[in-house]
Design a protein that fits this description.
Number of strands: 39
Helix content: 10-25%
Number of helices: 13
Distance between the termini: 94 Å
Strand order of the largest sheet: 5-13-12-11-10
Shape: elongated
Strand content: 25-35%
Largest sheet: 5 strands, antiparallel
């Protein structure tokens, strides 16, 4: 029998400790009881001390607890110490640390947390007949539209998405069924495991969009729509039919005003329209939510002829755009005439909207535009639909574009400013003010600080922001204005340079767009998602890269997609960060107050364990080196995409 007073000499990570047998073994069934009983083989150093390859600092805290049954946590990393306690099997201390950790974390989030939309627990069954009849791109496909009564209200109740339970967070067992699938799959055979994983992946939120007070959450084969009201909060309003093909793009338009369909049915009560793109096909539904039950009308199924890369509404018009190439196309469905029309827009590379105008950047260096208000008047003259607005002086391919309408644009219509970026790294600003009417936009200023293709550009009231493909390198300038117009006195001045690192696969980038987000007359922000499978997002000012706050999922599930939207509020609009998760849930965060605080040169914010940003001198912008290492520890860098290549050499200019 062992002598409890026997001295045990330990070498933990190179630091020597001496304690008694009784101190190490008073907690039963631990690493130490197994070690000293011989159930674990021992390794001794040159002095005969038992060597344990662990952190000596954390071990010292654990040893002091074993000696005194007490511990001081004022300067302790609770999560790291808890990990060591779990390794050594010190259950009494591990339980105390778990409670301390949970005291700082709440499944109800913290002050920035705005809402939780649970995953549909009973997803709809596939096989809806609307998927199988594909008509061609003509007026007939609108005539073939059908009106059907949606069963979304009963679905919301059957799925535990009743208004009274919309904020309820599912248990860990429900989460494993609705997105993770590991617990069941581990005990099943290969066939059943494959089914579980396939279903779980299909229930991951693929895309999330918002317009006014509406949210569309897209899964692999269907879309669920939510609405926000002051009395009910967020609640389920509609659901799309299940699609046989994978949903790749969605577009949401609230407060459409409705109109008469070509089949003669009246959709004047329509308050939301939903477009879905899969491959080259686009399906459009109108939802009349003022009736009970919700009335769903299939407006039509349209074929662009090439894969749809962008789907958006320009006013009430649905627009589908293909990717770059000589066969680039634009498809437009006009709400008043119910026409679907395709238009060749060769070498399309980027786009932006301004009022009823759709601006198109091309690989030939031209900026073209389409006036959506005139679109139905020119059905027989396609060549007049696309009009050239400007041509780059060096004919560099245009890769990003941003339109800023000055406050006086609404008065005279002649005030417009456009910033655009090129494949060779140039950023140019062109302007059209009243004195230049009749001559087209004039080149105002050029910046050549980037050496990689420009991927984003944003011109706002106070700043010009550009992003290039070299790890999302950002340059920003402060814009000087005089009476609303951009001015050369004293001119645009450099503001900041920083990177918004994102190790995301190219296929995921359309639904994990870093930004910048926000209205052009307010402070804009970037959303930084560093690694693919992470529950942490960094919110940063677009003007200087400073951190606004850090968002962490309240249930620990990884963020699969995100966007930022301006939602109406009782007193002022709210800027919401909308996150879709691999668990099938959506989480919402109110960024209004922290953005305003950060824009007033307040201190940056660092994360806490409750998923909310706290004011702290830590974290000047993106993740600190320590935060980055922690993120990368859960990411397989070998599987991460290679760094984006630099742009080809700039051609010699004549």
């Amino acid at each position: 029998m062992a002598n409890y007073q026997e001295i045990v000499h330990l070498n933990v990570g190179g630091t020597r400790f001496a304690t008694s047998w009784h101190t190490l073994t008073w907690v039963p069934d631990t690493f130490f009881t197994a070690l000293l009983s011989g159930r674990i083989p021992t390794v001794r150093d040159e002095t005969g001390a038992i060597f344990i390859d662990r952190d000596p600092n954390l071990f010292g805290l654990i040893l002091n607890f074993l000696r005194t049954r007490d511990i001081d946590l004022t300067t302790v990393n609770i999560r790291a110490l808890r990990h060591e306690c779990d390794y050594f099997g010190i259950t009494p201390l591990s339980r105390r640390l778990a409670l301390c950790d949970e005291m700082n974390h709440s499944a109800c989030g913290d002050v920035l947390f705005y809402g939780y939309l649970p995953p549909p627990l009973n997803p709809p069954i596939s096989g809806n007949g609307n998927n199988r009849n594909t008509t061609n791109c003509s007026r007939k496909n609108s005539t073939a539209s059908t009106t059907e009564v949606a069963t979304n209200r009963s679905h919301s109740r059957n799925s535990s998405l009743d208004l009274r339970t919309i904020g309820r967070i599912p248990s860990q067992d429900q989460l494993s069924r609705c997105g993770r699938g590991h617990s069941r799959a581990a005990s099943l055979g290969n066939t059943e495991s494959h089914k579980v994983n396939t279903w779980a992946d299909s229930m991951k939120v693929q895309i999330i969009k918002a317009h006014h007070n509406w949210i569309a959450v897209a899964y692999t084969h269907f879309v669920t729509g939510y609405r926000l009201t002051d009395s009910c909060g967020w609640y389920v309003v509609f659901q799309s039919p299940v699609q046989d093909s994978v949903i790749e793009r969605i577009a949401l338009n609230a407060k459409t005003g409705g109109g008469a369909t070509s089949s003669g049915s009246n959709t004047s009560g329509t308050d939301v329209m939903l477009g879905i793109a899969s491959g080259s096909l686009v399906r459009l539904w109108a939802f009349s939510t003022h009736t009970e039950p919700v009335r769903r009308t299939l407006v039509g199924t349209f074929n662009l002829g090439v894969r749809v890369e962008h789907l958006l509404f320009v006013g009430p018009q649905l627009v589908a755009l293909s990717g770059a190439g000589s066969r680039s196309k634009a498809g437009v469905w006009h709400t008043s005439t119910q026409h679907w029309q395709t238009q060749d827009v060769a070498h399309l590379t980027t786009h932006d909207t301004a009022g009823s105008f759709l601006l198109l950047g091309t690989a030939t260096g031209a900026i073209n535009y389409i006036d959506m208000q005139k679109f139905p008047l020119r059905m027989k003259d396609n060549d007049l639909l696309v009009t050239q607005l400007y041509k780059d002086p060096n004919q560099e391919p245009i890769t990003a574009i941003s339109v800023y309408l000055t406050p006086k644009t609404n008065l005279c219509g002649n005030w417009i400013e456009i910033a655009y970026g090129t494949r060779y790294g140039s950023v140019r600003v062109i302007v059209q003010h009243p004195e230049t009417v009749g001559h087209g936009p004039q080149l105002f200023q050029t910046f050549t600080v980037h050496q990689s293709p420009i991927t984003k550009v944003s011109l706002s009231e106070n700043y010009l922001v550009s992003v290039c493909s070299e790890y999302n390198h950002v340059r920003s300038w402060r814009v000087t204005r005089f009476r609303g117009m951009i001015s050369t006195q004293p001119g645009t001045t450099p503001k900041a340079a920083f990177k918004v690192l994102a190790l995301e696969a190219p296929t995921a980038q359309p639904h994990n767009d870093c930004g910048p987000y926000g209205e052009q007359d307010e402070e804009q922000i970037f959303i930084q998602k560093v690694v693919p499978d992470t529950d942490t997002l960094y919110v940063r000012l677009a003007s200087n890269g400073k951190r606004v706050c850090t968002i962490r999922s309240v249930d620990g599930s990884a963020v699969s997609c995100f966007t930022v939207a301006e939602c109406e509020g009782a007193l002022r609009p709210r800027r919401l960060l909308l996150c879709g998760h691999r668990s099938g849930a959506a989480q919402l965060w109110d960024l209004t107050a922290p953005t305003d605080r950060a824009a007033r040169v307040g201190p940056p914010a660092a994360p806490n364990s409750a998923g909310e940003g706290e004011e702290s001198p830590v974290g000047e912008g993106g993740p600190s080196p320590d935060e980055l290492v922690r993120l990368l520890s859960a990411c397989d860098l070998d599987a991460a995409p290679a760094p984006l290549p630099h742009s080809p050499s700039r051609p010699l200019q004549p």
